[in-house]
Design a protein that fits this description.
Elements (H helix, E strand, L loop, with lengths): L1 H5 L1 H18 L12 H6 L2 H4 L4 H9 L8 H14 L3 H27 L4 H14 L4 H5 L4 H22 L4 H15 L8 H10 L5 H5 L9 H6 L2 H20 L11 H20 L8 E2 L2 H4 L5 H21 L5 H14 L11 E3 L8 H16 L5 H25 L4 H11 L4 H13 L3 H14 L4 H13 L3 H14 L4 H13 L3 H14 L4 H13 L3 H14 L4 H13 L3 H14 L4 H13 L3 H14 L4 H13 L8 H14 L5 H13 L3 H17 L3 H15 L9
Antiparallel strand pairs: 1-2
Helix pairs in contact: 2-7, 2-8, 2-21, 5-6, 6-7, 6-10, 7-8, 7-10, 8-20, 8-21, 10-11, 11-15, 12-19, 16-18, 18-19, 19-20, 22-23, 23-24, 23-25, 24-25, 25-26, 25-27, 26-27, 27-28, 28-29, 29-30, 30-31, 31-32, 31-33, 32-33, 33-34, 34-35, 35-36, 35-37, 36-37, 37-38, 37-39, 38-39
Length: 734
């Protein structure tokens, strides 16, 4: 009870932070997924959609899918899928809850480190800015950025654990907790690689552990060497995570080359971005999901490079000022280096993706700026006589303004169309927004508008392979095959590893009747995505169509390795092997299919035919009966069964009465327009010693076969007709 009394203000602030954050962001609970990486992370990711499974957990720790190694993030998406399925609102609520937790943890961690009584409102202001600043909307309202909010939870827990350790620096149990929290954070997103250096900054202020080094005699309980050494295990974790991340991103071709983004461009853009982020912090207007590189501007040395030089000079000036203030205002140098340092992994020196900057990258770095703003404002105004009035009013005004702007920004993330349309309002030359919006309106059936957006995206960025691909797909849907082919070929040249482009080319060539070209395109796609079973299935069926049965069988075999329970692949393999005359392999494939689906009438029917070819009529009859049990309308199966019952040389199998019943139903079902069925009915009549009916039916069947140009069958029926006229039933010798 006493603890609650001692900490009632902290509890009150924490509750207020939670309420304000929920009030500003609550609309995300009704938001949809957006067509920008949400498919990669959730809605088109079968492993994630299955929820938490042993196989999925192993995959999470092994995969480099989406160009990152963050197993805990994958597991969090899997857990959401298990709880909410495809309901986007549930996934959004989880991200919002994590953001609320982060706000409170930031407040608690800063409070634990600063400790003095007046700091509670400074800490609260930092946490409030973090909670409702508009540039943080992207991290919270975008499901694919779960890694941001989740990793930050562990960032805050690491800070809190470190504050506890700093109070008892020889408590190795507490140090292990710090290590564990950092490791979990790195497994959520590698953004935490700079955290060990941030902890070193926090040693300077507010923990003031550096003072122990330079303090009076007897106060030096800790040395500079010790401060650095205790960070070594943390740095080792960070380095290991960095190496793993870079390896995964390079393997996924997410890391841009120096040819794409020269070093001078990266350095210049980094300087401009540092200042631009500060500008958006002070005046958060014109926020967008994507800020493209202005490639034309970089080609003019006097343009963006002059801007970069000015930005670099400003950054240097602020840094010098903070160093000069380090003794009297230690929070300034700590906050500024926090901002500069934590942005390093995402500032573009190692360019991942094609964006010049991104709001989500500021989720943690701006804490440093918020610290400077909070403590700096107190120092500037707090000493004035009116400071006690001005500060609360100013703080409340800033928080309310940010909250209002954030509330509007949240609604831009309601769905894909809103997001991309807003991006075009901000920048009409945003090629990715044009391409993405084109995809959305194209799915809605407005191909003309979609094509307009694709063409504009290509006009802005001719090497944008996605727009070229999407334009080709849209033109193909309009039947403009030649123009579509040109676009898809350009897309394949720009991005030779895009599987969907080769699939599109395969579909286009198939429609043009160029089956060999279609097969070549599908084979290239299968080479790039060997485990994409649906692609292989379509390719195998096309190979069957052109008679390349061995190649088709190879793909069907690969499919059943990927999806052993895919009954269609086993069926197709059985049909191919049967067509090749490889009866034993066909029978084995049929049995595998029936082990998965015992009610598969088609496989029972095929097994019956295969057993007939091997003169295993008893087995054939059994499977024909099973086929009819599950599909009474199977015409060929009914005819084959009736034929065996009427003509078998095995006395145990013949049953003239049943044969007549089956054959009569069959002839009635086919309108007496199937010569083979009439032939079977004639044989059944003969087996039942109804020779007059047999002669009449056989004559009708022979005439019908001739009329349908089935001359060989007509000759066979007339040969049997002579036996019926001689009062003899027919016995099949096969």
């Amino acid at each position: 009870m006493q603890w609650f009394v001692d900490h009632y203000r902290e509890l009150m602030v924490s509750g207020l932070l939670a309420l304000v954050t929920l009030g500003v962001f609550y609309a995300v609970a009704w938001h949809d997924f957006v067509d920008f990486d949400d498919d990669v992370y959730v809605i088109a990711n079968e492993t994630v959609l299955r929820g938490i499974t042993a196989e999925g957990t192993l995959w999470a720790f092994q995969t480099g899918h989406a160009g990152n190694w963050h197993p805990l993030t994958w597991l969090s998406h899997m857990l959401d899928s298990q709880l909410y399925g495809r309901n986007a609102g549930g996934h959004h609520v989880t991200s919002l809850v994590l953001h609320v937790v982060n706000n409170i943890l930031l407040f608690v961690a800063l409070r634990a480190m600063t400790g003095d009584e007046p700091s509670i409102w400074k800490c609260a202001f930092v946490a409030a800015l973090f909670a409702v600043h508009p540039v943080h909307v992207e991290s919270v309202a975008w499901v694919a950025e779960r890694k941001d909010v989740l990793s930050t939870t562990f960032w805050m827990l690491t800070m809190l654990a470190y504050a506890s350790y700093a109070r008892r620096p020889y408590s190795w149990g507490r140090y292990v907790v710090v290590l564990l929290m950092l490791a979990l954070g790195l497994m959520s997103k590698p953004m935490l690689v700079t955290l060990p250096l941030v902890l070193l900054l926090l040693d300077y202020w507010p923990l003031r552990r550096w003072q122990w080094v330079a303090g009076a005699k007897g106060a030096g309980r800790i040395t500079a060497k010790r401060l650095v050494i205790e960070k070594v295990p943390l740095l080792a974790l960070a380095i290991a995570s960095s190496v793993k991340t870079f390896t995964v991103q390079r393997a996924g071709e997410a890391v841009a080359t120096l040819d794409q983004f020269p070093l001078r461009v990266r350095l210049a853009n980094a300087a401009i971005s540092y200042v631009a982020y500060l500008g958006k912090t002070i005046w958060p207007a014109n926020l967008s999901f994507f800020y493209p590189y202005s490639e034309s501007a970089w080609k003019t040395p006097a343009g963006r490079y002059a801007e970069a030089a000015a930005a670099g000079a400003l950054l240097l000036a602020v840094t010098v000022a903070c160093v000069m203030l380090a003794r009297r205002r230690p929070y300034a140098i700590v906050g500024w280096l926090w901002y500069l340092g934590t942005l390093v992994p995402v500032i573009g020196l190692v360019q991942v993706g094609s964006q010049a900057m991104a709001d989500r990258y500021t989720y943690v770095p701006l804490i440093g700026i918020f610290i400077i703003a909070s403590w700096g404002a107190t120092d500037l105004v707090g000493a004035a006589r009116a400071g006690k009035v001005i500060l609360p009013v100013a703080a409340a005004t800033v928080i309310c303004a940010c909250a209002a702007r954030t509330w509007f920004q949240v609604h831009h993330w309601a769905d894909s169309r809103s997001l991309f349309s807003h991006a075009l309002d901000v920048d009409p030359d945003n090629y990715l927004a044009h391409s993405s919006l084109g995809r959305i309106v194209g799915r809605a059936g407005n191909l003309d508008e979609a094509i307009k957006h694709y063409r504009r995206a290509i006009e802005i960025k001719p090497i944008h392979s996605t727009a070229q691909h999407n334009l080709g797909a849209a033109l193909m849907r309009q039947g403009k095959l030649d123009e579509a082919q040109q676009c898809l070929l350009i897309a394949a040249q720009l991005n030779p590893r895009r599987v969907e482009t080769y699939i599109g080319l395969g579909q286009l060539y198939t429609r043009q009747g160029k089956l060999d070209e279609a097969i070549a395109a599908y084979e290239k796609a299968a080479e790039l995505a060997p485990r994409k079973w649906d692609l292989r299935f379509g390719l195998a069926n096309l190979l069957v169509k052109v008679g390349r049965l061995d190649e088709a069988a190879r793909h069907f075999a690969a499919i059943v390795e990927i999806k052993p329970q895919m009954v269609r692949a086993h069926r197709a393999m059985a049909v191919v092997r049967a067509a090749q005359g490889r009866t034993d392999e066909a029978i084995a494939a049929c049995r595998r299919a029936l082990a998965i689906d015992p009610r598969d009438a088609r496989m029972h029917g095929l097994l019956g035919e295969l057993h007939v070819s091997l003169r295993r009529h008893v087995e054939a009859v059994r499977h024909y009966r099973e086929a009819l049990r599950w599909n009474a309308d199977a015409v060929e199966v009914a005819n084959n069964l009736a034929w065996i019952l009427a003509t078998s040389r095995d006395d145990r199998l013949r049953n003239g009465r049943e044969a007549v019943e089956i054959a009569e139903r069959l002839c009635q079902a086919t309108g007496h327009q199937m010569p083979a069925a009439l032939d079977t009915l004639a044989a059944a009549y003969a087996e039942s010693h109804r020779f007059a009916d047999a002669v009449r039916t056989a004559s009708q069947g022979a005439d019908l076969a001739s009329a349908q140009h089935q001359f060989a069958l007509a000759d066979e029926i007339r040969g049997r007709l002579k036996q019926y006229e001689a009062q003899q039933p027919y016995r099949d010798t096969h």
